[in-house]
Amino acid sequence: MMLLQYFIQRRFIIMRMLFVSFLILMSKEPDSLYYARLRKALVDKLREEGITSERVLNAMLKVERHKFVPKELQRFAYQDRPLPIGYGQTISQPYVVALMTQLLDLKGDERVLEIGTGSGYQAAILSLLCKEVYTIEILKPLADSARERLKRLGYKNVYVKHGDGFYGWKEHSPYDAIIVTCAAPRVPEPLIEQLKMGGRLVIPEGDEFQVLNLYIKTEKGLIKHSVIPVRFVPMRGKIRE
Ligand code: SAH
Fold first, then answer.
1. Which residues are annotated as catalytic?
2. 14 within a domain of the structure (yes/no)
3. What is the CB neighbour count within 10 angstroms for residue 99?
4. Which position has the higher pLDDT, 4 or 236?
5. Is 143 part of a structural domain of the chain?
6. Angle (deg, nearest 10), helices 31-48 and 54-62
7. To test the ligand 1 pocket, which listed residue (87, 137, 191, 232) has its Cβ within 8 A of the most ligand atoms?
8. β-sheet bridge partners, residue 211
9. What is the pLDDT of residue 25?
10. Assigned domain for 77 exists
11. 152-210 pLDDT, tens per residue?
12. d(CA 206, CA 185)
């Protein structure tokens, strides 16, 4: 009897030890592994929701969105929703980032212009899918922190400029693709000029109610495709004059 009790107790102790070491292991699992699992789940969800480009899904799997949001919001980084990034601005919802990127149909050799750098997340996604990304942010502290962040994370083909994206970035034009990540009442004219013939431009248009529009530049003018209703922070600066 005593012997049986001894064995039961011993087994209990061993099981408890195993359980405790399991807990320690789990809690010590590096953040990056934990977040990689959440990211995978998010990408699976994006695929279910109709994102079909494997190149885009792959980029979404690689870029660590939690490193683009304030520390206290990191645990929400892989939920499909926008998050505040300070100065009244937001990092867009992953689905919308994926959709806009997919609409640009990048093959790898393009030069892309982004208006509205924000956290730099969209620029990081683009940088994995094309040759060079030029991105403009009107709020200086956001431009500075995005530039620093992208450099720290090793995104070498992204160039950040502080300024009003209304005017584009003529020096490096023409662009194969342009993506505007703030809502404007119309496409800023300089952006149309700086887009290559056959190039694609994606922009949320409207005020309270906005539509995501894709434009393709042709010899006969712009061809417009309206995609889905969206909600972005407004474009500021010259476009409002
Ligand atoms: N693409 C960003 C999210 C953009 S939020 C990301 O991945 O995090 C929209 C951004 O556009 C804001 O940071 C806002 O300051 C910026 N913005 C607004 N008007 C602008 C303008 N005229 N030129 C450049 N950036 C502008």
1. 92
2. no
3. 22
4. 236
5. yes
6. 160
7. 137
8. 205, 229
9. 66
10. yes
11. 999 999 999 999 999 999 999 999 999 999 999 999 999 999 999 999 999 999 999 99
12. 5
Q: Which residues contact 4 (CB under 8 A, 6 or more apart)?
A: none
Q: Which two tokens stand for residue 127?
A: 């940088």
Residue 179, both tokens = 């993506």
16 lies in some domain? no
Domain housing 179: 31-240
Q: How many domains does the chain have?
A: 1
Phi, psi for 117 (deg, rounded to 5): -65, -40
Q: Say yes or no to pLDDT of 113 above 90.
A: yes
- Residues contacting ligand 1 via CB (< 6 Å): 89-92, 115-116, 118-119, 121-122, 136-139, 142, 164-166, 181-182, 233, 235-237
Query: Residue 87 belongs to a domain with what CATH number?
Result: 3.40.50.150
pLDDT in tens, 24-74: 666 655 688 999 999 999 999 999 999 999 999 999 999 999 999 999 999
